[in-house]
Known about the structure:
Strand content: 5-15%
Mean pLDDT: 95
CATH topology of the largest domain: Rossmann fold
Shape: globular
Helix content: 25-40%
CATH class of the largest domain: Alpha Beta
Number of helices: 13
Number of strands: 13
Largest sheet: 8 strands, mixed
Structural class: alpha/beta
CATH architecture of the largest domain: 3-Layer(aba) Sandwich
Distance between the termini: 58 Å
Amino acid sequence: MKDTLIKRIETKEFTVGIIGLGYVGLPLLYTFAEREFPCIGFDVDEEKVRMLSEGQTYINHISSDRIVRGADTGFVSVTADFSRLEECDGILITVPTPLNDQREPDLSYVVATCETIGSHLRKGQLVVLESTTYPGTTEEVMIPILERSGLKVDQDFYVAYSPEREDPNNPTYSTTTIPKVIGSTSSEGREVAEALYGQIIAQTVLVSSTKVAEATKLMENIYRSVNIALVNEMKMTFAKMGIDIWEVIEAASTKPFGYKPFYPGPGLGGHCVPIDPFYLSWKAREFGVYTKFIELAGEINTSMPDYVVVRIIEVLNTYGKALKESRILILGLAYKANIDDARETPSLDLMQKLEQLGAQVSYNDPFIPVIPRTRKFDGLSGRSSVEIDRSFDLILIATAHDAYLQVDFDALGIPIVDTRGILKGSSPFFHKA
């Protein structure tokens, strides 16, 4: 089985199926197609399928031209018909893995996807999970569901875990240039997965098991979470001392060794860093381990919107205004600069908190014209981006979009609270948060 699959990969007769056409799955689909692999993209959202079939994109940094070019090659098809999984030699799973309200892993998307795959599983397939999760998910959750088909892992089909490492709109790295970690339940499965990913990615990194691969992804994001929490705490401490954290970071960054800059903000956003650390802390409790660093970092990072709200109240007070009934404009809904991704964005949390305290809140974002539907902030969905003008009592900079670097904030003549360090020069209207 192994040799047959590798030969099909090398001759590009290997059909790749990708389930979940979001920020991870969509670029992966078109990367394989651009390497002339027959590909089938699967998604339960029929609107996404329709848009892709018509050559339209729904992710800002993936152009419609790329979608059209992929279709023109004849190597891509997209569908909501999961019976076509039987056509695939390899099935890559890139579905969401959120947290529930108790900050526990929600694997419902992974479970549902594996159940669907299991009903169409055949001999001689490779199934790879890319969604971020806790160590043990592949062996404890995924494989038992797939084996309900009557087929056995490493006898009839292979399984691997290879964590996604997408960084949307990163100009330095892309799907093909980011090294790919691969773990499997057998050396044969790992060889097949390596042969497949090696066709599109410059470097593959092989590890001994799926658990090591799962843990690798968590290590990466916990590292970021802890360091961002540290710099957020230092920001609040230095602010009390009258010290500008951004100037401190710039100076510290001149050290050529032993220091890597991390930057504070109004809270964590994106699908990975705010969520992934709690996957490990949840799993660690099964082994009687309390992950103090992870929990503390989470507490600091999730408290940042509250800190920003307090700063807004303080700034308004200096102008003789109360927060209640003040008109506030939040600049930036996306969780990071120059993308259209609002997953886990702290801006929505800020909007809700400010409105609960009686403020009238609007937002501006050149990449997100309408607030998408979310599970946690559904009451805010459907609102539209507004223009930046002086009709507001205060403007809060929550995302460092390049477009905001062109705004003459001083000329607006209203207080500006900056959580991203983009305001330059001195002005009585500029305030840090």
